[in-house]
Amino acid sequence: MGHKVVVFDISVVRALWETRVKKHKAWQKKEAERLEKSALEKIKEEWNFVAECRRKGIPQAEYCKNGFIDTSVRLLEKIERNSLPRPSSLAKDRGKQSSPFVLELSGEHWTELPDSLKEQTHLKEWHIRNTLIEIIPTYIELFQAMRILDLPQNQISCLPAEIGRLKNLKELNVSFNHLKSIPPELGDCENLERLDCSGNLELMELPFELSNLKQVTFVDISANKFSSVPICVLRMSNLQWLDISNNNLNDLPQDIDRLEELQSFLLYKNKLTYLPYSMLNLKKLTLLVVSGDHLVELPTALCDSSTPLKFISLMDNPLDKDQCQDGDEIMESEQERRHFDKEFMKAYIEDLKERESVPSYTTKVSFSLQL
């Protein structure tokens, strides 16, 4: 048998489909009217908007005001334009390109970390500076690949204990924040090599648990309120650079020579009246910077030009600071002054390293200008 062919009147088929199309269009119109009156569409719109903002790393405070979400496209464009992470100066200095493993945030429009950050646990570096961020979240423990935490010049008041679970952390910079203490759990970061806690102004001690940090070669705790060299620092056997300038030191421990690998020692702007003779045992010391205003006794061998040691004695000329009624303004101006002073000394010391010889003393003159 051959194929069976069924023949219909074409007009009948056409009429049937036209009827079906009309019914479907009428249903679509009613459904659109129903959704327009329903709250579900509004919820869906808000949800998609929030998801888009999170994907772009925009803080919730930017688009949610008093519990209401502004879903206008123009607002999204404005927020995105103003809130995109800007390359940090550190990244520029290193000449590195943007990387999927690096987070970079800067600017005072950042008051909190983006919600989407907790999903990016593959990140190896955080470079966050000059923001109004106050809190480092506890979920930082999820970033097991973290190598560098570069968090200077923010408003951070404390570090979470969970930071101690970052076993691969190499560098921690929390300079010029508002820290008053360092969590002892940081001592569990046994691979840490660089620690910068300078410029917090109120920091008075480091926990003994940091004695476990045997890989540390660089410690900067300048511009704080240390009255003595922390015991944990003396136990950092590989330490090469120690900056404890601009504190309240009256003397140095007699066992300072435990730091056998120390090469650079910055002590200026303290209240030291003498230097212990045990410093002569620091055979690898090549740079020593002190304030000479109060020094009355020091080993003469430190000033011997035949040694490779560059001994710098700064003669300070302090100016009386105007007192402000607002305590916050005093704190801010003090941090800015110390930050400028630190940047100046950094450039000065880098220049000294390139010289074959240095002056026997240096007079640093401070001045101000009112417009």
UniProtKB/TrEMBL annotation:
Entry keywords, A to Z: Leucine-rich repeat, Repeat
SMART domains: LRR_BAC, LRR_TYP
The name this protein goes by in its record: Leucine-rich repeat-containing protein 2
PANTHER family in the record: LEUCINE-RICH REPEAT-CONTAINING PROTEIN 2, PTHR48051
Gene3D superfamilies, per the entry: Ribonuclease Inhibitor
Signal peptide residue numbers: none
Gene Ontology terms: cellular component: cytoplasm
InterPro entries, per database record: Leu-rich_rpt (IPR001611), Leu-rich_rpt_4 (IPR025875), Leu-rich_rpt_typical-subtyp (IPR003591), LRR_dom_sf (IPR032675), LRR_domain-containing (IPR050216)
Organism name: Sciurus vulgaris (Eurasian red squirrel)
